Hints:
By secondary structure, the protein is α/β, with parallel strands linked by helices. The chain is 38% helix and 17% strand.
Amino acid sequence: MPKVLVATVKPFAPAAVNQIREIIEKAGYEFALLEKYGSQGDLIAAVADADALIIRSDKVDSEVINAAGKLKIVVRAGAGYDNIDLEAASGKGVVAMNTPGQNSNAVAELAQGMMVFMARNQFNGTSGTELSGKTLGIHAYGYVGKLVAKIARGFDMDVYAFDPYIDREVIEGDGVTCLDSAEALYSTCQYISLHIPANDETRGSINHELMSVMPEGAVLVNTARKEVIDEDSLEKIFAGRPDFRYVSDIAPDNAVQLKEAYADRCFFTPKKMGAQTSEANINAGVAAANQIEAFLETGDTTFQVNK
Length: 307
Ligand code: 3PG
């Protein structure tokens, strides 16, 4: 009987766990749960006899892959798979998948909520501004970016996007103005919402050059990954531009210094919470369980990311 391990430092909502368990047990597999584990060693020990693994932002590095002698498939219940060592997985013949789109609405709602939060001065009671009529630049027009555009248009924002991997027609079909470069996006938009993955191309790419061309009252919203921001640039822009604000679902490494110096211009969630809704947990968790069953039963590799 194949064993499916759900290993999440940040647990799914109980309803999601129940639904995952149901799918796994109905398929005739053994279900195992490792939540809120304290160290990487706990994960390494737990994967020893697992045939399949469901994770969130949990780190599946070469040590985990090597310790998982029976592992055939790892599914990241979510979008970004920068936490999986794909080379190590491929080297051991382990299929890695994500569940694209399944938690996007939760992240998009948070991004819009963060814009409101900053426009209203972090709800501190002082007079803020409105989002209506303001320019919003969506950096990467994937599942989340597309939903942010939809929500922001409901707020009557003037929405722009830059994504070299998405056809202009797709972007413009949503009533969003497609721009041809990141520079054009940042120099046009007061609000920028980041939806790029963390990879070799994007790490540290949001730099001083881009931040400094944002119009007066700049608000940078990051529900993507902290690694895409160049943190030295962030310090420099905060020091040089008293109007610049940064709100992020992932605290930067220099969060303490930034908070101390610029508390009213930055905010960081204590824990990544973009996908922390019951609905997103159910959608992504159930998709992961179904993908594992389809793979184990029929060899279905749709959503494989290490081809
Ligand atoms: C994702 O990549 O899907 C999001 O960043 C959510 O990550 P999480 O499952 O760790 O909350």
